[in-house]
Amino acid sequence: MKQATARACSNIAFIKYWGNRDETLKIPMNSSISMNLDGIYTETHVRWDDALASDELVLNHQKVTGQALHRVSEHLSFIRNRLNINTFAYVESVNNFPMGAGIASSASSFAALTVAAVKATGADLTERELTSIARLGSGSASRSIPSGFVIWHQGHDHTSSYAESFAQPDYWDLVDVIAIISGEHKAVGSRMGHTSANTSDLQMARVNGAEERLRICQQAIFDRDFSTFADVVEYDSNLMHAVMMTSRPPLFYWLPTTLTVMDAVRHWRSEGVQVCYTLDAGPNVHCICTRPYADVVAQSLRAIAGVNDVRMATVGGGAQLIK
Ligand code: DP6
Prior knowledge:
alpha+beta; Ribosomal Protein S5, domain 2; Alpha-Beta Plaits
């Protein structure tokens, strides 16, 4: 039986991916940087099975059809073509965190799916190629395969658009303290948002400065320079949300508590706490801090009305096969 199980962490971007040059291949408008989130993961089992008449998907213990199955099936078809597989697959996937609330579930899902599906065929592809394949399923999934701090090079075609690690998890002891403000499934997913990004007049300005911000962010990580890091990470997140809010139709992901938390984080930083915020396509606030401040940040977040839960993640490793 051709089967394998893989686990991949979610990741949080410091320099964001928002909008594609090529929608089908998911060649992004700019390169991006992220850290993997240890302990926030998807585990996916894939079995290529001669007896199946179509692909099957069980997600968080429930059989899934429709759009979600279609997206997984499309991804499996790319792998089938690439590796000359003629059978359908049974896929079982479990997330250990709420879906659709700004903790990227597509990133960990497509990273785990790619590694399990490829491994189950017996093929031995390079990590670089795995990241390019994962990208086709979900752009940010490419960044969940390498370990620690990861850069996804924008590239210009399928093989040149890939992700690689530039620092291991223990290089800098950062913690993502996530203020969960809503666990509901977001109304407009990233996929739609990427296609409407260029309807905002601000998108070109965001993209034009992205390379410089990425260079500053990567250097700040190399130097463990929190102050420079915080400035560029918050600025990049604000820019992405400015694009979202000025797209047509506009996308507003923030809730009132989101803004309260962002204000609080800036205030804490002005008092000497090493913390900054970044948001994905959702209302939850990722408060990135250095290890010594993680507990006090978590405690302070819990005291804010409207913060329903707080999760902490240190820097995670790369996608792995599970026995
Ligand atoms: C806001 O990778 O989820 O989290 O490629 O359509 O699956 P698809 O989009 P996705 O977009 C992530 C966008 C983001 C920023 C980021 O992670 O860089």
